Amino acid sequence: MSVVCRPTASNLVAFSSVITFKPSISRARFHCRTDENGDNKFRERPPPKRRHSRGPSRRSAIKKSFSQEQVKFASPIKIEDDPVVGIIGGGISGLVCALYLEKRGFSSTVFDTGIHGLGGRMGTRIIDSQPLIFDHAAQFFTVSDPEFSKLVDSWTKNGLVTQWDGAIGELEAGGRFLPLSSLPLKYTGVHGMRPLADSILSETSLVKVVRPCWVSKLEPYNGLWHLSENGKPCGHFDAIVIAHNGKCANRLLASSGLPLVARQMKRLELSSIWALMAAFEDPLPVPLSDHGEPLEGAFVKGIDSLSWMGNNTAKLMATQRGAPHCWTFFSTAAFGKQNKVPQESIPSVTAEKVKEAMLEGVEAALGLKKNSLQKPFYTRLQLWGASLPLNSPGIPCIFDPHGRAGICGDWLLGSSLESAALSGIALANHIAEYFQSGGESPDEFALGLHNDFHPLRAHDIGQFPGLDSTRETNEELQLQLTL
Description:
The structure is a single chain. By secondary structure, this protein is an alpha+beta fold. 26% of the residues lie in helices and 23% in strands. It has twelve helices and 24 strands. It has helices at residues 12-15, 58-65, 92-103, 146-157, 193-199, 247-253, 259-267, 312-316, 333-338, 348-366, 417-437, 467-482, and strands at residues 29-34, 40-45, 84-88, 107-111, 124-127, 132-135, 161-163, 167-172, 176-179, 187-189, 207-210, 217-221, 224-229, 232-237, 239-242, 273-280, 295-301, 308-311, 325-330, 378-384, 391-392, 398-400, 405-407, 454-455. It has a seven-stranded mixed β-sheet with strand order 9-8-17-18-19-16-20. A six-stranded mixed β-sheet has the order 11-4-3-15-23-22, sandwiched between helices. Helix 3 (92-103) packs parallel to helix 11 (417-437). The protein is elongated, with a radius of gyration of 25 Å. The N and C termini lie far apart (75 Å).
Protein backbone atom coordinates (compact mmCIF):
# COMPACT_ATOMS: atom_id res chain seq x y z
CA MET A 1 0.00 0.00 0.00
CA SER A 2 1.29 3.45 -0.86
CA VAL A 3 0.33 6.64 0.91
CA VAL A 4 0.73 9.88 -1.01
CA CYS A 5 0.30 13.56 -0.28
CA ARG A 6 -1.63 16.06 -2.37
CA PRO A 7 -0.67 15.00 -5.91
CA THR A 8 0.93 17.50 -8.27
CA ALA A 9 2.75 17.03 -11.50
CA SER A 10 6.05 17.49 -9.75
CA ASN A 11 5.67 15.31 -6.75
CA LEU A 12 3.27 12.52 -7.73
CA VAL A 13 5.93 10.14 -8.96
CA ALA A 14 8.48 11.14 -6.34
CA PHE A 15 6.18 10.57 -3.44
CA SER A 16 4.09 7.60 -4.53
CA SER A 17 6.36 5.16 -2.69
CA VAL A 18 7.46 7.20 0.31
CA ILE A 19 5.70 4.87 2.69
CA THR A 20 5.26 1.16 2.17
CA PHE A 21 3.81 -1.30 4.64
CA LYS A 22 5.52 -4.64 4.22
CA PRO A 23 3.29 -7.67 4.66
CA SER A 24 4.64 -10.34 6.91
CA ILE A 25 5.13 -13.80 5.40
CA SER A 26 4.69 -16.89 7.50
CA ARG A 27 4.49 -20.60 6.85
CA ALA A 28 1.29 -21.08 8.80
CA ARG A 29 -0.51 -24.41 8.50
CA PHE A 30 -4.29 -24.51 8.65
CA HIS A 31 -6.81 -27.16 9.60
CA CYS A 32 -10.54 -27.32 9.19
CA ARG A 33 -13.18 -28.22 11.76
CA THR A 34 -16.95 -28.22 11.81
CA ASP A 35 -18.67 -26.03 14.41
CA GLU A 36 -21.95 -26.67 16.24
CA ASN A 37 -23.95 -25.22 13.31
CA GLY A 38 -22.32 -27.51 10.78
CA ASP A 39 -20.21 -24.76 9.19
CA ASN A 40 -16.60 -25.28 8.29
CA LYS A 41 -14.18 -23.09 10.20
CA PHE A 42 -10.57 -22.69 9.17
CA ARG A 43 -8.09 -22.05 11.94
CA GLU A 44 -4.36 -21.60 11.91
CA ARG A 45 -2.64 -24.58 13.46
CA PRO A 46 -0.32 -23.23 16.18
CA PRO A 47 3.28 -24.43 16.41
CA PRO A 48 3.70 -27.43 18.70
CA LYS A 49 5.52 -25.44 21.40
CA ARG A 50 2.73 -22.87 21.57
CA ARG A 51 -0.33 -25.08 21.86
CA HIS A 52 -1.98 -22.72 24.34
CA SER A 53 -1.71 -19.62 22.13
CA ARG A 54 -4.94 -17.61 22.11
CA GLY A 55 -4.11 -15.21 19.29
CA PRO A 56 -2.00 -12.07 19.11
CA SER A 57 -1.52 -10.29 22.40
CA ARG A 58 -1.58 -6.54 22.98
CA ARG A 59 2.19 -6.70 23.46
CA SER A 60 2.66 -8.21 20.00
CA ALA A 61 0.40 -5.54 18.50
CA ILE A 62 2.51 -2.81 20.05
CA LYS A 63 5.70 -4.54 18.92
CA LYS A 64 4.54 -4.24 15.33
CA SER A 65 4.43 -0.47 15.71
CA PHE A 66 8.21 -0.35 16.04
CA SER A 67 8.74 -1.95 12.62
CA GLN A 68 6.16 0.08 10.70
CA GLU A 69 7.29 2.41 7.94
CA GLN A 70 7.54 6.12 8.70
CA VAL A 71 4.95 8.42 7.18
CA LYS A 72 6.58 11.28 5.28
CA PHE A 73 4.39 13.99 3.86
CA ALA A 74 6.16 15.62 0.91
CA SER A 75 3.84 18.47 0.00
CA PRO A 76 4.53 21.76 1.82
CA ILE A 77 2.10 23.41 4.23
CA LYS A 78 0.44 26.51 2.80
CA ILE A 79 -0.80 29.07 5.32
CA GLU A 80 -3.31 30.40 2.79
CA ASP A 81 -5.00 26.98 2.81
CA ASP A 82 -5.83 27.44 6.53
CA PRO A 83 -4.29 24.22 7.93
CA VAL A 84 -6.38 22.47 10.58
CA VAL A 85 -5.21 20.32 13.51
CA GLY A 86 -7.03 17.26 14.86
CA ILE A 87 -6.58 16.89 18.63
CA ILE A 88 -7.37 13.48 20.11
CA GLY A 89 -8.07 13.92 23.81
CA GLY A 90 -10.02 16.61 25.67
CA GLY A 91 -8.09 16.75 28.93
CA ILE A 92 -6.46 19.96 30.11
CA SER A 93 -3.47 19.49 27.79
CA GLY A 94 -5.52 18.98 24.63
CA LEU A 95 -7.90 21.84 25.50
CA VAL A 96 -5.09 24.30 26.19
CA CYS A 97 -3.35 23.20 22.98
CA ALA A 98 -6.52 24.06 21.03
CA LEU A 99 -6.84 27.38 22.88
CA TYR A 100 -3.28 28.45 22.05
CA LEU A 101 -3.52 27.26 18.43
CA GLU A 102 -6.42 29.70 18.09
CA LYS A 103 -4.28 32.43 19.65
CA ARG A 104 -1.84 31.79 16.78
CA GLY A 105 -4.66 31.87 14.22
CA PHE A 106 -5.11 28.15 13.54
CA SER A 107 -8.26 26.04 13.67
CA SER A 108 -8.60 22.69 15.40
CA THR A 109 -11.08 19.98 16.28
CA VAL A 110 -10.93 18.29 19.70
CA PHE A 111 -12.14 14.70 19.91
CA ASP A 112 -12.97 13.40 23.38
CA THR A 113 -14.53 10.21 24.70
CA GLY A 114 -16.23 11.93 27.65
CA ILE A 115 -19.96 11.30 27.93
CA HIS A 116 -20.60 13.75 30.77
CA GLY A 117 -18.11 16.43 29.72
CA LEU A 118 -14.54 17.29 28.86
CA GLY A 119 -11.57 17.26 31.18
CA GLY A 120 -10.11 13.77 31.34
CA ARG A 121 -8.75 13.49 34.88
CA MET A 122 -10.41 16.79 35.77
CA GLY A 123 -13.50 14.82 36.73
CA THR A 124 -16.46 16.07 38.78
CA ARG A 125 -19.54 14.01 39.57
CA ILE A 126 -22.75 15.76 40.61
CA ILE A 127 -25.76 13.87 41.95
CA ASP A 128 -28.55 16.42 41.45
CA SER A 129 -31.20 14.70 43.51
CA GLN A 130 -29.24 14.94 46.79
CA PRO A 131 -27.38 17.30 45.99
CA LEU A 132 -23.96 15.67 46.14
CA ILE A 133 -20.75 16.82 44.46
CA PHE A 134 -17.37 15.11 44.15
CA ASP A 135 -14.11 16.01 42.46
CA HIS A 136 -13.08 12.42 41.86
CA ALA A 137 -9.79 13.00 40.04
CA ALA A 138 -7.73 16.22 40.24
CA GLN A 139 -8.29 17.78 43.67
CA PHE A 140 -6.52 21.13 43.33
CA PHE A 141 -3.53 22.66 41.61
CA THR A 142 -0.71 25.08 42.29
CA VAL A 143 1.07 27.62 40.11
CA SER A 144 4.83 28.16 39.70
CA ASP A 145 5.32 29.00 36.02
CA PRO A 146 4.78 32.58 34.73
CA GLU A 147 3.03 31.45 31.54
CA PHE A 148 0.65 29.19 33.43
CA SER A 149 0.10 32.00 35.93
CA LYS A 150 -1.25 34.21 33.12
CA LEU A 151 -3.70 31.47 32.15
CA VAL A 152 -4.86 30.99 35.74
CA ASP A 153 -5.29 34.76 36.14
CA SER A 154 -7.66 34.74 33.16
CA TRP A 155 -9.61 31.83 34.67
CA THR A 156 -9.86 33.73 37.95
CA LYS A 157 -11.14 36.91 36.24
CA ASN A 158 -13.77 34.83 34.41
CA GLY A 159 -14.93 33.28 37.67
CA LEU A 160 -13.79 29.76 36.76
CA VAL A 161 -11.30 29.11 39.58
CA THR A 162 -10.91 30.16 43.19
CA GLN A 163 -8.39 29.68 45.95
CA TRP A 164 -8.90 26.80 48.35
CA ASP A 165 -8.12 28.36 51.71
CA GLY A 166 -9.15 25.42 53.91
CA ALA A 167 -6.77 23.47 56.15
CA ILE A 168 -4.71 21.18 53.90
CA GLY A 169 -1.79 19.13 55.13
CA GLU A 170 -0.45 15.69 55.94
CA LEU A 171 -2.35 13.22 58.09
CA GLU A 172 -0.39 10.49 59.83
CA ALA A 173 -1.97 7.22 60.94
CA GLY A 174 -3.59 7.79 64.31
CA GLY A 175 -4.93 11.27 63.56
CA ARG A 176 -1.85 13.54 63.75
CA PHE A 177 -2.45 16.44 61.35
CA LEU A 178 0.39 18.60 60.05
CA PRO A 179 -1.03 21.60 58.12
CA LEU A 180 0.90 22.89 55.13
CA SER A 181 1.76 26.53 54.61
CA SER A 182 -0.75 28.77 52.86
CA LEU A 183 1.84 29.16 50.10
CA PRO A 184 1.88 28.26 47.35
CA LEU A 185 -1.74 29.19 46.70
CA LYS A 186 -4.02 26.24 46.03
CA TYR A 187 -6.63 26.58 43.31
CA THR A 188 -9.74 24.62 42.41
CA GLY A 189 -12.63 25.05 40.02
CA VAL A 190 -15.42 27.21 41.46
CA HIS A 191 -18.00 24.51 40.74
CA GLY A 192 -15.56 21.62 40.51
CA MET A 193 -12.75 20.68 38.18
CA ARG A 194 -14.83 19.44 35.24
CA PRO A 195 -16.83 22.67 34.85
CA LEU A 196 -13.48 24.44 34.58
CA ALA A 197 -12.45 22.12 31.74
CA ASP A 198 -15.80 22.58 29.98
CA SER A 199 -15.37 26.37 30.13
CA ILE A 200 -11.80 26.66 28.82
CA LEU A 201 -12.93 26.81 25.17
CA SER A 202 -16.16 28.74 25.81
CA GLU A 203 -14.91 31.93 24.13
CA THR A 204 -13.10 30.35 21.17
CA SER A 205 -14.28 30.61 17.57
CA LEU A 206 -11.77 28.41 15.74
CA VAL A 207 -12.19 25.29 17.87
CA LYS A 208 -14.72 22.54 17.27
CA VAL A 209 -15.41 19.90 19.94
CA VAL A 210 -16.70 16.43 19.07
CA ARG A 211 -17.79 14.14 21.93
CA PRO A 212 -18.32 11.44 22.78
CA CYS A 213 -16.02 10.16 20.07
CA TRP A 214 -13.43 7.41 20.30
CA VAL A 215 -11.01 7.88 17.39
CA SER A 216 -9.92 4.35 16.51
CA LYS A 217 -7.85 4.79 13.36
CA LEU A 218 -5.37 7.24 11.84
CA GLU A 219 -4.71 7.03 8.10
CA PRO A 220 -2.34 9.23 6.09
CA TYR A 221 -3.69 9.87 2.60
CA ASN A 222 -3.13 12.60 0.00
CA GLY A 223 -1.15 14.80 2.36
CA LEU A 224 -3.70 14.69 5.17
CA TRP A 225 -4.49 12.62 8.24
CA HIS A 226 -7.88 10.91 7.98
CA LEU A 227 -9.43 10.03 11.35
CA SER A 228 -12.23 7.55 11.89
CA GLU A 229 -14.26 5.96 14.67
CA ASN A 230 -14.98 2.29 13.98
CA GLY A 231 -15.10 2.95 10.25
CA LYS A 232 -17.04 6.21 10.51
CA PRO A 233 -15.06 9.17 9.10
CA CYS A 234 -14.25 11.91 11.62
CA GLY A 235 -12.57 14.35 9.24
CA HIS A 236 -9.17 15.03 7.72
CA PHE A 237 -6.41 17.24 9.10
CA ASP A 238 -3.07 18.74 8.19
CA ALA A 239 -1.56 17.69 11.54
CA ILE A 240 -2.64 15.63 14.51
CA VAL A 241 -2.09 15.83 18.26
CA ILE A 242 -2.28 12.84 20.59
CA ALA A 243 -3.40 14.33 23.91
CA HIS A 244 -4.12 11.13 25.81
CA ASN A 245 -2.13 8.08 26.84
CA GLY A 246 -2.35 4.50 28.06
CA LYS A 247 -3.33 1.37 26.20
CA CYS A 248 -5.84 3.17 23.95
CA ALA A 249 -3.22 5.60 22.68
CA ASN A 250 -0.78 2.72 22.17
CA ARG A 251 -3.32 0.80 20.08
CA LEU A 252 -4.13 3.89 18.04
CA LEU A 253 -0.45 4.46 17.23
CA ALA A 254 0.43 0.80 16.65
CA SER A 255 -0.27 0.93 12.89
CA SER A 256 -0.31 4.68 12.28
CA GLY A 257 2.97 5.04 10.42
CA LEU A 258 4.50 6.96 13.32
CA PRO A 259 7.02 4.49 14.80
CA LEU A 260 9.07 7.09 16.70
CA VAL A 261 6.01 8.65 18.29
CA ALA A 262 4.62 5.19 19.10
CA ARG A 263 7.89 4.14 20.72
CA GLN A 264 7.99 7.18 23.01
CA MET A 265 4.36 6.69 24.05
CA LYS A 266 5.00 3.02 24.80
CA ARG A 267 7.82 3.94 27.20
CA LEU A 268 5.38 5.71 29.50
CA GLU A 269 4.55 3.88 32.74
CA LEU A 270 1.31 4.70 34.56
CA SER A 271 -0.01 4.02 38.04
CA SER A 272 -3.46 2.76 39.01
CA ILE A 273 -5.49 4.53 41.68
CA TRP A 274 -8.84 3.73 43.27
CA ALA A 275 -11.17 6.66 43.95
CA LEU A 276 -13.95 6.26 46.52
CA MET A 277 -16.69 8.88 46.65
CA ALA A 278 -18.62 8.74 49.92
CA ALA A 279 -21.35 10.97 51.38
CA PHE A 280 -22.06 11.11 55.12
CA GLU A 281 -25.00 12.57 57.03
CA ASP A 282 -22.80 14.00 59.78
CA PRO A 283 -19.34 15.61 59.76
CA LEU A 284 -16.37 13.26 60.09
CA PRO A 285 -14.37 13.61 63.33
CA VAL A 286 -11.33 15.17 61.67
CA PRO A 287 -8.42 16.78 63.54
CA LEU A 288 -8.00 20.55 63.73
CA SER A 289 -5.18 22.83 62.66
CA ASP A 290 -3.27 25.01 65.12
CA HIS A 291 -5.82 27.74 64.38
CA GLY A 292 -8.77 25.50 65.13
CA GLU A 293 -9.71 24.86 61.48
CA PRO A 294 -10.98 21.37 60.65
CA LEU A 295 -9.03 19.32 58.14
CA GLU A 296 -10.41 19.76 54.60
CA GLY A 297 -7.75 17.93 52.60
CA ALA A 298 -4.83 15.70 53.55
CA PHE A 299 -2.07 13.59 52.07
CA VAL A 300 -2.36 10.44 54.18
CA LYS A 301 0.81 8.77 55.44
CA GLY A 302 1.29 5.24 56.79
CA ILE A 303 -1.96 3.71 55.48
CA ASP A 304 -1.66 1.08 52.74
CA SER A 305 -5.13 1.68 51.29
CA LEU A 306 -5.27 5.47 51.51
CA SER A 307 -3.16 8.32 50.10
CA TRP A 308 -5.57 11.29 50.11
CA MET A 309 -8.85 12.43 51.63
CA GLY A 310 -10.65 15.61 50.60
CA ASN A 311 -13.86 17.27 51.77
CA ASN A 312 -15.73 18.33 48.62
CA THR A 313 -18.55 19.96 50.57
CA ALA A 314 -16.17 22.28 52.42
CA LYS A 315 -14.25 23.04 49.24
CA LEU A 316 -17.14 23.56 46.82
CA MET A 317 -20.26 24.17 48.93
CA ALA A 318 -18.94 26.01 51.97
CA THR A 319 -21.83 28.49 52.02
CA GLN A 320 -24.56 25.83 52.00
CA ARG A 321 -25.72 24.84 55.45
CA GLY A 322 -27.04 21.39 56.21
CA ALA A 323 -25.64 19.83 53.05
CA PRO A 324 -24.39 16.22 53.17
CA HIS A 325 -20.66 15.78 53.74
CA CYS A 326 -19.11 14.57 50.49
CA TRP A 327 -15.60 13.14 50.65
CA THR A 328 -13.22 11.82 48.02
CA PHE A 329 -10.72 9.17 49.12
CA PHE A 330 -7.83 7.95 46.97
CA SER A 331 -5.87 4.74 47.42
CA THR A 332 -2.12 4.49 47.21
CA ALA A 333 -0.58 3.47 43.89
CA ALA A 334 0.67 0.26 45.53
CA PHE A 335 -2.85 -0.64 46.66
CA GLY A 336 -4.15 0.16 43.19
CA LYS A 337 -1.61 -2.16 41.61
CA GLN A 338 -2.38 -4.96 44.06
CA ASN A 339 -6.11 -4.71 43.37
CA LYS A 340 -6.13 -3.82 39.69
CA VAL A 341 -8.94 -5.23 37.55
CA PRO A 342 -10.41 -4.19 34.18
CA GLN A 343 -11.80 -0.76 34.96
CA GLU A 344 -14.60 -1.17 32.42
CA SER A 345 -16.11 -4.07 34.39
CA ILE A 346 -15.12 -4.11 38.05
CA PRO A 347 -16.21 -7.36 39.77
CA SER A 348 -18.61 -6.70 42.63
CA VAL A 349 -16.47 -8.80 44.97
CA THR A 350 -13.43 -6.64 44.24
CA ALA A 351 -15.44 -3.43 44.58
CA GLU A 352 -16.71 -4.41 48.01
CA LYS A 353 -13.28 -5.52 49.15
CA VAL A 354 -11.65 -2.24 48.01
CA LYS A 355 -14.38 -0.08 49.53
CA GLU A 356 -14.12 -1.85 52.87
CA ALA A 357 -10.32 -1.56 52.91
CA MET A 358 -10.41 2.14 52.05
CA LEU A 359 -13.00 2.98 54.71
CA GLU A 360 -10.94 1.04 57.25
CA GLY A 361 -8.02 3.19 56.10
CA VAL A 362 -10.05 6.31 56.88
CA GLU A 363 -10.70 4.99 60.38
CA ALA A 364 -7.02 4.29 60.93
CA ALA A 365 -5.94 7.67 59.54
CA LEU A 366 -8.36 9.52 61.84
CA GLY A 367 -7.35 7.42 64.85
CA LEU A 368 -10.83 5.92 65.29
CA LYS A 369 -11.70 2.55 66.76
CA LYS A 370 -12.39 -0.23 64.29
CA ASN A 371 -15.96 -0.17 62.93
CA SER A 372 -16.67 3.16 64.63
CA LEU A 373 -16.73 5.25 61.43
CA GLN A 374 -20.27 6.23 60.48
CA LYS A 375 -21.58 4.42 57.42
CA PRO A 376 -21.86 6.57 54.31
CA PHE A 377 -25.36 6.72 52.80
CA TYR A 378 -23.87 7.03 49.29
CA THR A 379 -20.73 5.49 47.81
CA ARG A 380 -19.35 5.13 44.33
CA LEU A 381 -16.06 3.50 43.42
CA GLN A 382 -13.93 4.21 40.37
CA LEU A 383 -10.64 2.77 39.22
CA TRP A 384 -8.32 5.10 37.36
CA GLY A 385 -6.46 2.31 35.59
CA ALA A 386 -4.10 4.70 33.77
CA SER A 387 -3.88 7.31 36.46
CA LEU A 388 -0.59 9.19 36.76
CA PRO A 389 2.85 8.92 35.12
CA LEU A 390 5.65 7.14 36.93
CA ASN A 391 8.34 8.30 34.51
CA SER A 392 8.91 11.22 32.15
CA PRO A 393 11.29 12.43 29.42
CA GLY A 394 11.26 15.90 30.99
CA ILE A 395 10.41 17.77 27.77
CA PRO A 396 7.39 19.97 27.02
CA CYS A 397 6.13 18.07 23.99
CA ILE A 398 6.96 15.60 21.22
CA PHE A 399 6.68 16.38 17.51
CA ASP A 400 7.34 14.32 14.40
CA PRO A 401 7.61 16.85 11.55
CA HIS A 402 7.69 14.24 8.77
CA GLY A 403 4.42 12.73 9.97
CA ARG A 404 3.03 16.06 11.21
CA ALA A 405 2.07 14.50 14.52
CA GLY A 406 2.68 15.58 18.09
CA ILE A 407 2.06 14.52 21.67
CA CYS A 408 1.18 16.70 24.64
CA GLY A 409 0.32 15.73 28.20
CA ASP A 410 1.28 16.22 31.82
CA TRP A 411 3.59 13.18 31.75
CA LEU A 412 6.05 14.89 29.41
CA LEU A 413 7.05 17.35 32.15
CA GLY A 414 5.68 15.82 35.34
CA SER A 415 2.30 14.89 36.81
CA SER A 416 0.53 18.16 37.57
CA LEU A 417 -2.20 20.24 36.01
CA GLU A 418 0.42 22.93 35.42
CA SER A 419 2.66 20.54 33.47
CA ALA A 420 -0.33 19.45 31.37
CA ALA A 421 -1.19 23.03 30.46
CA LEU A 422 2.43 23.95 29.71
CA SER A 423 2.74 20.93 27.44
CA GLY A 424 -0.35 21.97 25.48
CA ILE A 425 0.95 25.53 25.15
CA ALA A 426 4.37 24.34 23.97
CA LEU A 427 2.98 22.00 21.31
CA ALA A 428 0.53 24.61 20.01
CA ASN A 429 3.33 27.12 19.56
CA HIS A 430 5.61 24.50 18.00
CA ILE A 431 2.97 23.45 15.45
CA ALA A 432 2.19 27.10 14.66
CA GLU A 433 5.86 27.79 13.94
CA TYR A 434 6.08 24.63 11.84
CA PHE A 435 3.05 25.72 9.79
CA GLN A 436 4.47 29.21 9.32
CA SER A 437 7.73 27.73 8.04
CA GLY A 438 5.82 25.88 5.33
CA GLY A 439 7.24 22.57 6.55
CA GLU A 440 10.07 22.82 4.02
CA SER A 441 12.84 21.99 6.55
CA PRO A 442 11.10 19.38 8.71
CA ASP A 443 14.15 18.04 10.51
CA GLU A 444 14.58 21.40 12.22
CA PHE A 445 11.24 20.85 13.99
CA ALA A 446 11.81 17.31 15.28
CA LEU A 447 11.33 17.32 19.04
CA GLY A 448 11.52 14.68 21.78
CA LEU A 449 11.57 11.65 19.51
CA HIS A 450 14.65 10.10 21.13
CA ASN A 451 14.71 11.45 24.70
CA ASP A 452 15.24 8.99 27.53
CA PHE A 453 12.75 8.65 30.36
CA HIS A 454 13.50 9.10 34.05
CA PRO A 455 11.51 8.19 37.20
CA LEU A 456 9.19 10.85 38.62
CA ARG A 457 9.01 11.88 42.25
CA ALA A 458 5.46 12.75 43.25
CA HIS A 459 2.60 12.16 45.64
CA ASP A 460 0.36 9.24 44.77
CA ILE A 461 -2.15 11.77 43.42
CA GLY A 462 0.41 13.80 41.47
CA GLN A 463 2.76 16.74 41.74
CA PHE A 464 1.97 20.18 43.13
CA PRO A 465 4.76 22.59 42.11
CA GLY A 466 6.03 24.58 45.07
CA LEU A 467 4.26 22.43 47.64
CA ASP A 468 7.13 20.03 48.31
CA SER A 469 9.68 22.80 48.83
CA THR A 470 7.26 24.54 51.19
CA ARG A 471 6.83 21.38 53.24
CA GLU A 472 10.59 20.90 53.45
CA THR A 473 10.98 24.51 54.66
CA ASN A 474 8.29 23.98 57.29
CA GLU A 475 9.98 20.79 58.51
CA GLU A 476 13.33 22.60 58.78
CA LEU A 477 11.67 25.40 60.77
CA GLN A 478 10.02 22.94 63.14
CA LEU A 479 13.38 21.21 63.64
CA GLN A 480 15.04 24.52 64.47
CA LEU A 481 12.31 25.35 67.00
CA THR A 482 12.85 22.06 68.79
CA LEU A 483 16.63 22.56 69.15
